[in-house]
Amino acid sequence: MVKRALPFAGAVLLGVVVALVIVVPRLRSHQFAGTVFTDPGPAPALQLTAAGGERVGLDDFRGKVVLLYFGYTSCPDVCPTTLAALADAVEQLGSRGDEVQVVMVTVDPERDTPELLADYVAHFDPGFVGLGGTPSEIAAAAADFGIYYQKGEGTVDTGYEVDHTSQVMLIDPEGRYREVLDFGLDGAQIAGDVAQYL
What we know:
By secondary structure, the protein is α+β, with helices and mostly antiparallel strands.
C-alpha cells in the first residue's frame, strides 16, 4: 500500500506545483500608479453644462469608469499633456475603452464656453466630454473635489493663465471616488489602473 501511495502522492504534489506556477502570477496584486483610497465613498454630485446647453452630471455615466479632469482650453502645457495621456489610455484599453468616460471641467468659465470645450476635447478623442458653467457652479464643483485654481499672469499673446490642480479623479462604475492620478503618468500606467475597475 505504501509503495503505491508514494507515486500517487508525488503526482498530486507535482500537480499542485504546476497549478501554482500557472495561477500565482494571476493572483499578484496590481501595482497602482495612482493614489488609491482605502475606504472609497461616493463621488460628489456634479451637474454642469455641455455643448448645446444640456445639463450633464456624473450619474449620467454610471456603469463606466469616469476620469474627471479640471483644466482649461488655453492651458499651454499641462492640460494638453494630460488629455493626450488619457486618450492614449483609452486607446490602449481597446474595446474596453468604451467603458471609460473622460470628462473635462473648465476652470476658466470666463473664456471657455461649453461649445469651445467640446471642440477642444474632441481633438484628443471624440468621445471625451467637456463641461462648463457659471463661475459659482465651477467654484462649487472644484471645491467638492478639492481642486485649487486661480487666475494668474500671462502674456499679451496668451492672455491670463490659470494655475490649477493637475490631478485626474477616477470614479468607478458604481459612482465611488476610488483614486487620484497625478500629472505625469503615461497612457499605459493610467490604462493599467483603469482596467482594475472594469
